[in-house]
Write a structure and sequence with these properties.
Strand content: 15-25%
Order of helices and strands: EHEEHEEHHEHHEH
Number of strands: 7
CATH class: Alpha Beta
Largest sheet: 5 strands, mixed
Number of helices: 7
Radius of gyration: 15 Å
Distance between the termini: 15 Å
Helix content: 25-40%
Length: about 200
């Protein structure tokens, strides 16, 4: 059975720059995935994720991306596109590093199928946890793009609870794998060690 990872990247301390992390936690709480899918809050980690990424057949990276488009615009592209563009679309330094990680894995012959689903942010400067109204209003659309992509990989996504993107700072920071009560997917905090093989 193919292993699939949803990897949310970003810095939640800078508003929309953390939209990928917000989405990772949202998906983990809301859905049951069949077959199992791992959901990882990668935060701003990059090279620390290298060994973990190599474990999967498909990796879906969710992040903010500066594409000079209307805030809230959604983009889907592959690792090869990010390399071709020189990854000038980054919203933060971690994206430059993650492409470096993927390139290293390619050189080692361990690169999985990697695809990005990203959104144009509105605010990546303000130092607070929480999405701008513009981006928050578009997160449901981003969710649907992700669900459709997972469906194309043969994953059934079943909602199991109502979840809102309007969470408090502590709600986001305190979410841990053992609080979800699910056995078929995991969220690993950016500051925690990966539980490989769990």
């Amino acid at each position: 059975m193919e292993k699939i990872l949803i990897l949310g990247l970003g810095n939640i301390l800078f508003s929309d720059e953390g939209l990928g992390v917000h989405m990772a936690h949202y998906l983990q709480e809301k859905y049951r995935f069949e077959p199992a899918v791992d959901v990882l809050d990668g935060g701003t980690l990059a090279y620390q994720l290298m060994d973990h990424i190599a474990l999967y057949d498909h990796v879906l990276i969710v992040d903010a991306a500066l594409m000079s488009q209307t805030p809230g615009s959604i983009f889907a592209f592959r690792y090869e596109d990010a390399v071709k563009w020189g990854w000038h679309i980054t919203a933060g330094a971690h994206e430059i590093e993650i492409v470096g990680v993927l390139t290293s894995l390619k050189l080692l012959g361990e690169l999985p199928d990697v695809q990005f689903i990203a959104m144009e942010p509105y605010d990546i400067v303000s130092t607070h946890i929480g999405l701008s109204p513009v981006v928050r209003d578009r997160m449901t659309a981003l969710e649907q793009v992700i669900i459709e992509k997972l469906g194309s990989w043969g994953i059934q996504c079943t909602p199991v609870r109502e979840v809102s993107f309007d969470r408090s700072d502590n709600d986001l920071l305190d979410i841990a794998p053992d609080k979800t009560g699910k056995e078929n997917s995991h969220v690993f905090g950016a500051s925690a060690q990966s539980r490989q093989g769990s």
